[in-house]
Amino acid sequence: MKKNSLSIVLEIYDDINELPDQIEKLMLEAQKARELAYAPYSRFKVGAAVLLANERIVLGNNQENAAYPSGLCAERVAVFAAGANYPETEIKAIAITARAGDRILTEPIAPCGSCRQAMAEYEHKQHSPIEVFFMGEDGPVYRLKSVADLLPLGFSSKYL
């Protein structure tokens, strides 16, 4: 039997103002998108902003539906919109922020498993890492240098 260990490096910024300028702008765009989320059932609003290699920013937010689970998360809305509108342009980074209807979220909220898989597909497709920045409504921002850090040993087309 062999043993191996996996590790990731998680960078923690105390707040949004410590981020590099371009990423701070990206997170501010994610916050704007968050406020436009359609979340009448959960009242849990999530916004995402994708930075493309051509410097364009594509936004997404969660879209709920009374027929659960027909809605979509903010991350997938943003990544799919980027893929639909700029199919040949690499995704450089994604910023994600969340707000609960009944309390202030001060802990970073990581993407769900479905969003991790969707983002991993784009990272695999473009053969280069996508940086991931995520936060709650306020407080620290977490940074990972690759979606693979969110989804180690992920499934991809290489298995098909």
Short key terms for the protein model shown above:
160 residues; alpha+beta; Cytidine Deaminase, domain 2; 3 helices; 6 strands; 26% helix
Kindly describe this structure.
The structure is a single chain. The chain has helices spanning 21-35, 74-85, 113-126, and strands at 11-13, 44-52, 57-61, 91-100, 131-135, 141-144. The chain has 160 residues and is of the alpha+beta class. It has a single domain (19-151), classed as Cytidine Deaminase, domain 2, CATH 3.40.140. A 6-stranded mixed beta sheet has the order 1-6-5-4-2-3. Helix 2 runs parallel beside helix 3 (113-126). The mean pLDDT is 96.
Task: Itemize the secondary structure elements and their pairings.
Blueprint: E1 11-13, H1 21-35, E2 44-52, E3 57-61, H2 74-85, E4 91-100, H3 113-126, E5 131-135, E6 141-144
Parallel strand pairs: 4-5
Antiparallel strand pairs: 1-6, 2-3, 2-4, 5-6
Helix pairs in contact: 2-3
Query: Which shape, going by the Cα principal axes?
Result: globular
Structural class: alpha+beta
CATH class: Alpha Beta
Task: Write the CATH architecture name.
Answer: 3-Layer(aba) Sandwich
Strand % is: 15-25%
Order of helices and strands: EHEEHEHEE
| Count of spatially separate domains | 1
CATH topology: Cytidine Deaminase, domain 2
Q: With helices defined by DSSP (H or I, 4 residues minimum), what is the helix count?
A: 3
Major sheet details: 6 strands, mixed
* CA-based gyration radius: 15 Å
The main sheet orders its strands as: 1-6-5-4-2-3
The rounded distance between the terminal residues' Cα atoms is 27 Å
| SS elements, strand count | 6
Uncertain stretches: none
CATH homologous group name: Cytidine Deaminase, domain 2
